[in-house]
Structure prediction request, 293 residues.
Amino acid sequence: MMSASTRWVISLLFILGGLSSATAQPTATPIAHTETLTLTSAYADGYTYQLHVTLPEGYDESRDAYPVVYYLDGWLYAELMAGIYRVAHGTGRLQNLILVGLSVDGDRTTWARHRFRDYTPTPYDTTRSSFDLTMGEVSTRTDATGGAPAFYRFLVEEAIPTIEQRYRARPTDRGLIGHSFGGLFATWVLQHHPEVFTRVLVACPSLWWNQGELLGTEAFNNLASGATSHTVFLTVGGKEPASMTSGFARAQALLDALPKNRLTLHARTYADDNHTSGLADMFADGLYVLYGR
Prediction:
């Protein structure tokens, strides 16, 4: 017969063994239905970018072509966007989509430097503003800005062709999602290259950039004169600084003035949110507004 002390030792070893096996080998959990491509750009100063591609369920069994939604800041938002899409699509109220998250390859500081450079349309004019935006050690006063034209070339001449050659993407139905500086870039693309994306979510855009240079009276005239109609979802947090809410209001007024047969505008203020607290709601609402069924 086993003694009490022996049973105690065996029980202790069992418990310790169970704890060891449960915690010894943690592994990263991949994003469902998502793969990552890496591209080195010939246009954006030779930087290497990652494309986080999330495919709809049943993609391999289907022969359908799908709308593609390109979202900026993929380094930060890839898990969030894939999760939102998975839940929203499960309601049956959302189209089948391909999501592509775009971001530079690297750590948090590299990502911050990339978005300061790639999403801003012009170099920051320190003579016109005393405001200095910082993210950790990255600053509008000390780091490169004004790289949006080069990043745009990477997007339309390298990233989009790669996606449309590799996947069953619908080239006539592209979307773009950008937040903050990403929203600034999305606004600039709408103004200067409206033919590329027909559905755009502009979330909390940093339209204060260089004294609101994207908010001139004729800023969106290309949208009115182009051959393509657009759907735009424009958002802001109600608790953001006045520089953000005033830019939102000005952009809404300019877009509202465009012919309704060229643009369908949805503008929404998230009254209880600041610059980041409402992001999940904005992204989810944006997918429903732009791609609901």
